[in-house]
Amino acid sequence: MGLLSELKKKALTVKEQMLPSTEFDAATLPWIDHSEADIAAFVKNFTPRFPLTFDLDEKLRFWQKNGYVILEKVIPQELINAYWEDVEELIEHPEKYKLMTRIDLPKFEPVQERLIKDFPKEDLKGKYVKLNDFHHLSETGKNLMTHPAIVNFLEAIFQQQVVVMQSLTFMFGSQQPTHQDFPWVTAKIPSHLAAAWIPLEDITADSGPLYYYVGSHKLPKFNFGNGILSNERSTRTPLEFADYLDKNCPAHGFEKKTLLINRGDVLIWHSALAHGGGLITNPDSTRKSYVCHYSTKKALPFHRYNLHAVPKEQEYHGVVIYEHPEFGEQENILKAEK
Ligand SMILES: O=C(O)CCC(=O)C(=O)O
User: What are the required cofactors (predicted)?
Assistant: First the structure.
């Protein structure tokens, strides 16, 4: 490390220790997170981009109180089938595609994240596989993550142009410890973040379903030793964070719920909703799912793989998706059917 960056790091460390952040910045908070948010007035004046397929007033009230919404039967089955066909093509022919993939198995340590072609093919169909940002290759993935029902809801809560931040595709449950997304999945404005959990099959209780604590977006924020975001200067670990959430959510009366939704439904959750992946109790039970994180143009004016370059923009259903900064030649290599 050069002298200048070392000095910078020291100054930041001191600043964060003296004055650690304890909350999101009120000046950039989405309107609905303000205690005085007037949902009735908002709905009266809001023009959704697409015809509404759910009761916006009811869903916004539910979101404000609970930190999530479930939109039922909004995604067409054909769109889900077409996306899964792309996933199968990828897994059958990994040598053709440039995609970073993570497999959390000890045998792949210390490099558990690699180009998909660098894993043995048989492991790609097993557990602990996370396909990172497959939407870059799959145009259907882009159409699915920007389905009009999702866009209508995100534009209502953010009141700004929505931007895709990342996506994860799973074949099996993640069994991830409890966490909130904002300390990790950071844009310039950490409160400008929401995620959609799109089941690609009906979800069963034995497959390690997602769980979440209802209302936990209002929990006082965890201090990583240097504020509410986790970074290389933090002195507290992800496991301490999980422990804080698992103890304090029940203590605040936030009920733990399991997400048993079906193909066609979608869960959208708040940046600070505590959630995790449940235990897989039947090792054969798959849990095919597509998890997409979104921010706003203001908070994420760059691709998160290259914070300094001006990104190439694409637009799907009004949502900005930045082209992959390194693998641009493979963008949309799997075309959506016309
Ligand atoms: O789907 C899961 O099990 C976990 C996904 C998740 O927690 C996340 O993407 O933040």
Answer: Fe(2+)
Is 185's pLDDT higher than 80? no
Q: What is the pTM of this model?
A: 0.95
Amino acid identity at 196? A
Task: Locate the ligand 1 atom nearest the alpha carbon of residue 289 and give its number.
Answer: 1
Question: Coil, helix or strand for 96?
Answer: helix
Name all residues whose Cβ lies below 6 A of ligand 1: 168, 170, 173-174, 176, 181, 210, 275, 277, 289, 291
Q: Which of 104, 175, 176, 294 to mutate to test the pocket of ligand 1 (most atoms within 8 A of CB)?
A: 176
Query: Can you tell me which residue has the tokens 């609905």?
Result: 32
- The class of domain 55-330 in CATH terms is mainly beta
| Of residues 245, 190, 258, 184, the one with CA closest to residue 216 | 245
Beta bridge partners of 295: 163
Tell me the one-letter amino acid at 18. M
Judge contact between 296 and 139, C-beta under 8 A. no
> What is the pLDDT of the chain when averaged over all its residues?
96
Q: 127, 277 in Cβ contact below 8 A?
A: no
Q: How far is the CA of 274 from the centre of ligand 1 (A)?
A: 10
Q: Which atom of ligand 1 is nearest to the CA of 208?
A: 3
Does residue 131 surpass a pLDDT of 60? Answer: yes
Task: Establish how many alpha carbons lie within 13 A of residue 224's alpha carbon, considering only the half-sphere containing its beta carbon.
Answer: 21
Cα separation, 295 vs 160, whole angstroms? 9
Instruction: Tally the C-alpha atoms within 13 A of residue 242's C-alpha that lie toward its C-beta.
Output: 10
pLDDT at 62 over 60: yes
